[in-house]
Amino acid sequence: MDLEERDAGGKDEFELAQRPRRTSLTVLTPSPLSASVLWAGTTNGLVQTTRDASQSWQDVTPAGLPKDSEIEAIEASHYDASTAYVVLNARQDLQPYIFRTRDAGKSWQKITAGLQPDWIARVIREDPVRQGLLYAGTENALYVSFDAGDHWQSLQLNFPASDVRDLAVHGDDLVAATYGRAIWILDDLAPLRQASPEIASSNGYLLKPATAVRVRYDNDQETPLPPEEPTAKNPPDGAIIDYYLKSVPPNPLTLEIHDAQGKVVRRFNSLAPAVDSTPKNVPDYWFGPPAHLSKDAGLNRFVWDLRYDPPQALNFGYYGGLLDYVEYTISDHALPADTPREQTLGPLAVPGQYEVFFIGNGTVMKQPLTITLDPRLHVSPADLEAQLGAVKRLDSGLAASTRAFQSITNLRAAIADRLKTLGVPLEQKPASRFSEQSGQAKEKSAEEKAQEEKAASNPDAKASADALRDLDKKADAILDGTFEAPGVGPVNRDLARTSFFIQSGDAAPSQTAKGVLEDSCNALNKNLTAWHDLDSQAVPATNTIIAKSGLAALPTATVVSITSASHDAPSADACAP
User: Fold this and answer.
1) Mean predicted confidence (pLDDT) in 400-413
2) Which has the least CB within 10 A, 272, 343, 349, 456?
3) Is there a domain that residue 55 lies in?
4) Residue 132 placed within a domain
C-alpha cells in the first residue's frame, strides 16, 4: 500500500469513487476441457483469453460494458471450450451483469432475464452433469437457469436473503458461500438435473436417485443437543428419493426397495403411522415423525436410511428387566428430531445395485439405485455380507422369540383368569430373572385362604386348579428359563444386545459374536420346540380337564396369533432368515 492509499481515510466516498483504481487480475479460470485455454478478468473490466497455454492472449472484452466495470467471476464451460460466462459489476451501478459467449469471446450475449433488478450479480456456475443448467448468486438471492442463462428463476427455497459470494457444485450438492450468513448446502441436485416437461405433465413420476453412500456419520453414544442450542441441520442420512405428484392422490402410495436378486429390502407407504403411546424416558424432541410417504402435489422427497426393517424386540431395560416403558440408554445416532425410535435397528444394506419401485396416482415406475461404501473404509464385500447375514439371523430370532413371548404371556394371562374364576390364585414364586418386580412373596389374605379351601373341597375344581398351575409352571419355564437354559424372554434380550454390538462397526462378526449368536439361536430353538409341544399337547389336555368345571377353553397360539407363523410345524432353525 502506498502513502496516498494509506492517507485516503480522510476523503469522502464520492471523492474516492472518482479516483482510478489500480489494475490487477481478479479472475483466472482454466477450461475443464483444454489445458491450453485460460480466461482472465481484471479490475478495469477487461476479459482476455488464451487458446495456446499463454503463448498469446486476446482481448475479448464484451462491447458496451458500463463505465468502471470490474470482472467479478468467469465460468468456463464443461461442455464446450469456446463457451464461457462472465459476471461483472460497475461502480455506482446496482444492475446485475452476466454475459455469455459461445465463440471464444468473438460475440457476447447479456443473460439477465429473470434476475431481480437493482441487485448486482456476484457469481455464476455451470452444472457439470446437465448441459444448460446454471446457478447464479446475486447480492440478495440464488437463481437457476435450465436454458444456459436465457431465462432465470428463483432457487431461494429456505435460503436467506443474503449476499452470495461464491457457488460450488460438489458432487450432487450445491454449496453457497455468503457474506456474513454462513455456508449453505442444497442437498442432492437430482430434481434440477432431471427436470423436464415429461415429469411436469405426468400424474406421478419417480426420479432417478443419486448414488447413496453407506456412511455412519454419528457413532457417538450421547444425548442430542437441547433444541435451543443453535445448530445446522445434518445432511440426509441415506438414499434421497424424489417423486413428483401432479395432484394429491386419492389412494395410498407405496415405495419398495429391492436388492439385486429382486428381494424386497424395505417397503414404505403413505398411510398415517400408528401413534406410539409407550412412555419413554427421554423428551419427544429427540424423535422425528415416523417414516412415511408424503402425498403433497408437486415434488416430494423421502429419505431411506439404507436399513432393513427394524426387527420385533421386547422392551428390556439396561439391567435386564422387562419394562412397560422405553429406556433409551446407549443409543448411537442420537440427534434432535432424528434419533431412531427403535432400540434395535435393522441391518444396513451392503454396497451394490438396488431398484426403487414407486406405485401411486396411476403410476408404476422403477429406477436404479447404487449404494457405495464410505470411501474412508477398507472392508471387503465378503465381510459386509457376513455382517448382514448375521444380523438377518438375529432379526429372525428376535421376531420368533417376540411372537412366542407374546403367545405364552397371553396363555398365562388366560390361566390366571381361569384360576380367578375358581377362586384360586397362582402360586407365588420368586421374581422372574428379567422382571423388575420384587421377588418377595405376598402373604395370602383370609378371603383368599377361604376360597382355596372351598375349591379344594370340590374334586373337579381341585383337578382344574392343579392342571392350570402345572401348565403355568411349564409355560413360565419356557418364558423365563434358567441361567443355564434361558427362556424366550432372556434369549430375546441377548439377541438384541448381540445385534447392537455386531452393528456397531463395519466388519464381519467376530468369532465370539458368532458363538453368542449360535448359542442364543440354539436355546431359542429348544424353547420353541417345548412351546410347540405345550401348545399342541398340554393346552388341549388342560382344556379337557377344566371343561368339567365349566371353564372356558384356554387359547392356543394358532388362535391367538392368527397372523403369525403356525406352530403346527416349527422351523428347525428359528433364526433362519
Assistant:
1) 95
2) 272
3) yes
4) yes
Q: Where are the alpha helices (DSSP H) in 50-188?
A: none
Domain count along the chain: 3
Bridge partners of 38, per DSSP, are 30, 50
Quick check: 468 and 458 in contact, CB under 8 A? no
Q: Which of 290, 310, 306, 338 minimizes the C-alpha distance to 209?
A: 306
Question: What is the domain extent for residue 68?
Answer: 22-186
Is there a single domain that holds both residue 320 and residue 394? Answer: no
What pLDDT sits at residue 8?
41
Q: Is residue 565 part of a domain?
A: no
Q: What is the mean pLDDT of residues 393-411?
A: 96
Residue type, 134: L
Distance CA 577, CA 568 (A): 19
pTM: predicted TM-score of the whole model, two decimal places: 0.85
Domain boundary among 352, 378, 404: 378
Which residues make Cβ contacts (< 8 Å) with residue 505, sequence separation at least 6? none
Alpha-carbon distance values, 311 to 324, 367, 391, 513, 526 (Å) = 18, 27, 10, 19, 21
- 205 bridge partner residues: 244
CA distance 344 to 281: 16
Whether the CB-CB separation of 383 and 348 falls below 8 Å is answered with no
Q: Is the domain of 406 the same as that of 527?
A: yes
How far apart are the C-alpha atoms of 176 and 164, rounded to whole Å?
7
Q: Is the pLDDT of residue 146 over 50?
A: yes
Q: How far apart are CA 308 and CA 293, in angstroms?
A: 17
Residue 9 confidence (pLDDT)? 43
Q: Of the residues 378, 400, 424, which one is the last residue of a structural domain? A: 378
Helix (H) or strand (E) holding 282: none
Measured in degrees and rounded to the nearest 5, phi and psi for residue 208 equal -70, 120
Q: What is the CATH number of the domain that holds 101?
A: 2.130.10.10
User: 117-131, 184-198, 500-514, 553-567: which has the minimum mean pLDDT?
Assistant: 553-567
